[in-house]
């Protein structure tokens, strides 16, 4: 029997009426990706189960792994109580598949579905997450890893995907705090949690061997937290940022900062002796703790290896020609303790208090809501450079959909990225080649900021 949408709805309704678990059926050839509510043991033993929203009911959501140049076919089935969509973060994707509710597609209502079908041009570490009411849906757990494998596996012993996240938990109930739209969080640094996890686990511990070389694929899936990390008893190199390989692996000598939505691929050699442990330390606070611990048992090799070779380059990595690039400006204002007195909301100038009353605390180029006209209108192949002036006292993680950019520093361009951390009161500049046609969001990935004023878009047409 072929399930049509009508009998699918009738069937799930009937099943729900019997109090049996609901089941979703694939409506097309694509593998379903079921967004649903479930309860699981997120907190340490002794605490109750926590109700979360997850892809296939899991934390982290189902890992999607495809070869470079391959095709992802997933049918999102929405079994949540509200509408949703999926954004494939960092993929230089066909615009129609970008998953932005209200820009590239309509949000999928409860009981509905959407067929995602796209090619992945670049190898690397990417992720996917909800893109409707993201500040709530991602915080409830709707995110997973999307790994695109290099044609030739790099020379490592193991590959570990590590999704760093935090959760704001009500300690009384053990449930996710429901204060998603609290003005205090929107207008300050965003919603940071009180429970820090890796792959949904506090104190994640992995087994390792001395002199083993691991590839760690770090993904910051938190709404607003900037992770500060250090390596203990391992030697590491950054081999890729936001999915894109570095031309030369860069030794990790200092703290690593990972803003919301950013990824870093590390190669690490475990130097701790058998019986000891190595760690990826979280050094956010005065009391560093292992974000991930590696318990060393045995020796992988008797001697340490030499420095790693770079990952193979992805296609279309040419640096933009700065002299030929069209300049644009992005002025970021607002937030608590800021200087913004007014901004335009839906075509009308409003004072800060009025904006706050309507749930807006920030503005990009003086506009608080998502503007009707793009920040930049570019023709295919055009090069653009964008200065970003952060006139607020908070850092922001600026993310461009559909294309990677390079930061411009002292007239030179840095590595390709899709998300840039811009510090409080800092000015930065990025440049990119507008080689992917469509309407692309450009927003702060502190998801509360995106929802309360820090969202705009660029058009390549
Ligand atoms: Cu990762 Cu617009 O998002
Ligand atoms: Cu922000």
Bound molecules: CU-O-CU linkage, copper (II) ion
Characterize the biggest β-sheet. Answer: 6 strands, mixed
What is the 3D form?
globular
Q: In angstroms, what separates the terminal alpha carbons?
A: 43 Å
Quickly count the domains.
3
Q: Can you name the CATH architecture of the largest domain?
A: Sandwich
Report helical residue fraction. under 10%
Q: What strand line-up does the widest sheet have? A: 12-9-14-19-16-17
CATH topology assignment of the largest domain? Immunoglobulin-like
Please give the number of β-strands: 34
Please identify the structural class as seen in this structure: mainly beta
Helix tally equals 5
CATH class call of the largest domain: Mainly Beta
What tags apply to this protein structure?
461 residues; Immunoglobulin-like; 3 domains; 6-stranded mixed β-sheet; 34 strands; disordered N terminus; binds CU-O-CU linkage; binds copper (II) ion
Give the arrangement of secondary structure elements.
Elements: H1 5-17, E1 31-40, E2 50-55, E3 61-67, E4 71-79, E5 86-89, E6 113-119, E7 124-130, H2 134-137, E8 143-149, E9 158-167, E10 169-170, E11 175-176, H3 183-187, E12 195-198, E13 204-210, E14 213-220, E15 227-232, E16 234-241, E17 244-251, E18 256-258, E19 263-270, E20 277-282, E21 289-299, E22 326-334, E23 342-345, E24 348-351, H4 352-357, E25 362-364, E26 376-378, E27 383-390, E28 396-400, E29 405-409, E30 412-417, E31 419-422, E32 427-433, E33 438-444, H5 447-451, E34 455-460
Parallel strand pairs: 1-4, 3-8, 9-14, 13-21, 22-27, 26-34
Antiparallel strand pairs: 1-2, 4-6, 5-7, 7-8, 9-12, 10-11, 14-19, 15-18, 15-20, 16-17, 16-19, 20-21, 22-25, 23-24, 27-32, 28-31, 28-33, 29-30, 29-32, 33-34
The structure holds CU-O-CU linkage and copper (II) ion.
């Amino acid at each position: 029997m072929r399930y049509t949408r009508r009998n699918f709805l009738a069937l799930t309704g009937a099943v729900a009426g019997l109090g049996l678990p609901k089941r979703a059926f694939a409506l097309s050839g694509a593998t379903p990706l079921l967004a649903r509510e479930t309860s699981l043991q997120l907190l340490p033993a002794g605490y109750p189960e926590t109700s979360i929203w997850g892809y296939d009911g899991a934390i982290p959501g189902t890992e999607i792994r495809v070869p470079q140049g391959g095709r992802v076919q997933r049918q999102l089935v929405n079994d949540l109580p509200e509408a949703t969509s999926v954004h494939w973060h960092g993929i230089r994707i066909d615009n129609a598949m970008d998953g932005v509710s209200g820009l590239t597609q309509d949000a999928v209502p409860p009981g509905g579905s959407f067929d995602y079908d796209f090619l992945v041009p670049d190898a690397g570490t990417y992720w996917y997450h909800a893109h409707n009411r993201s500040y709530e849906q991602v915080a409830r757990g709707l995110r997973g890893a999307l790994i695109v494998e290099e044609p030739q596996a790099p020379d490592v012993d193991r590959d570990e995907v590590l999704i760093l996240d935090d959760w704001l938990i009500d300690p009384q109930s053990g449930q996710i705090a429901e204060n998603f739209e609290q003005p205090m969080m929107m207008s300050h640094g965003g919603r940071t949690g009180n429970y820090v996890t890796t792959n949904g686990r506090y104190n994640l511990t992995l087994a390792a061997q001395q002199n083993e070389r691991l590839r760690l694929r770090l993904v910051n899936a938190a709404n607003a937290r900037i992770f500060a990390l250090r390596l203990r008893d391992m030697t590491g190199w950054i081999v890729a940022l936001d999915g894109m390989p570095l031309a030369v692996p860069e030794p990790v000598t200092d703290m690593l900062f990972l803003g919301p939505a950013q990824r870093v691929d590390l190669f690490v050699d475990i130097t701790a002796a058998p019986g000891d442990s190595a760690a990826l330390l979280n050094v956010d606070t005065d009391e560093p703790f292992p974000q991930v611990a590696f318990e060393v048992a045995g020796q992988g090799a008797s001697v340490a290896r030499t420095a790693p070779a770079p990952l193979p380059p992805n296609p279309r990595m040419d640096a933009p020609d700065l002299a030929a690039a069209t300049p644009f400006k992005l002025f970021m204002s607002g937030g608590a303790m800021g200087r913004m007195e007014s901004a335009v909301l839906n075509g009308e100038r409003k004072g800060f208090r009025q904006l706050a009353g309507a749930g807006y605390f920030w503005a990009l180029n003086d506009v608080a809501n998502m503007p009707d006209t793009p920040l930049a209108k570019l023709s295919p192949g055009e090069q653009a450079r964008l200065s970003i002036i952060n006139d607020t006292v908070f850092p922001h993680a600026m993310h461009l959909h559909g294309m990677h950019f390079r930061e411009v520093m002292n007239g030179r361009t840095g590595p390709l990225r899709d998300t840039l951390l811009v510090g409080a009161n800092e000015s930065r500049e990025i440049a990119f080649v507008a080689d992917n046609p469509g309407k692309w969001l450009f927003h702060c990935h502190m998801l509360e900021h995106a929802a309360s004023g820090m969202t705009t878009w660029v058009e390549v047409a």
